[in-house]
Model the fold of this input.
Amino acid sequence: MEVLEYGFMQRALLASLMVGAVAPAVGVFLVQRRLSLLGDGLGHVALTGVAVGVLTSTAPVGAALVAAVLGAVLIELVRARGRTSGDVALAVLFYGGIAGGVVLLSLAPRGQATNIEAYLFGAITTTSPGDVAAFAVITVVVLGLVTLLGQRLYAVSDDEEYARAVGLPVLALNLVLAGLVAATVVLSMRVVGLLLVSALMIVPSAVAQLLARSFRQALVLACSLGLVVSVSGTTASYYTGTPSGGTIVLLAIALFLVVSAAVAVREATGHRRHRRRAAIHAAHPHDHGTGCGHREVPHGDHVDYDHDGHLHAAHPTGSGVHYDEHGGHDGTARDTAPPSRGRSRA
Done:
């Protein structure tokens, strides 16, 4: 493939693989905690770290990681120990982080290349071999901690009071999760940018929760979807010349809209079928038998009666006669009814 012939695209796709797998693995816990915007807040704090790195001529990735982790610990401590609610603490972090970044970057000497847009909106093709190595370390640490502490993190994310009652260290686990979010934000900033990093953490997780039947399934599915949209978006951005971050996020949102519409149609169809069956039962209080107006369908050693596609047959019980479904219009039986005893009632 042409896209694999260039070294910068090989590094970009490696970064996409790591970000696509890691971001939803952490984001699924944020969706469960209803703190979907935490990644956005930490992204703004990471901008302050990038500015510090620019001013001090040190690695912006390392400075951003330190700033994001400190911000994550601060917000958890404020939420747990202070009188400020989680959304207010998040708002303070959100505005304080971006204001600090803007002010510090304005102090940078003239002529110093900041390339701030690369951090705000992502510039995956500028990923260096050193960045790939740093991303690999962050990926191993984040996925390792999620694997080891996944059940405990889920318990805290789902119900803190229950987790505290069973003896789990709630504050420590919250700090670990906040630290994982901070590391993921820094990992993702080159791929989708600090302003869009939360989308890659949250949207695949939201899609997975629409489809999965358990949290474990949601976690695996979210990582798979994140990996697919991340790699697909990076590849598409190469051929279309569009920014990688925006392309990845738009693909994820398109997937979310398609899955949401499909789930809504499935649920609406199920509800209509349920209401129709309930109406059919309620609208036939009379007895069935020869000449009752409903088509007779021979079924084994008895006769069923067609109710708009539902076949009813009598089942004698201790308290009377019970009717249930025996098949569709084609008369295909789904179970075996006891012998019919004379006229039946629906």
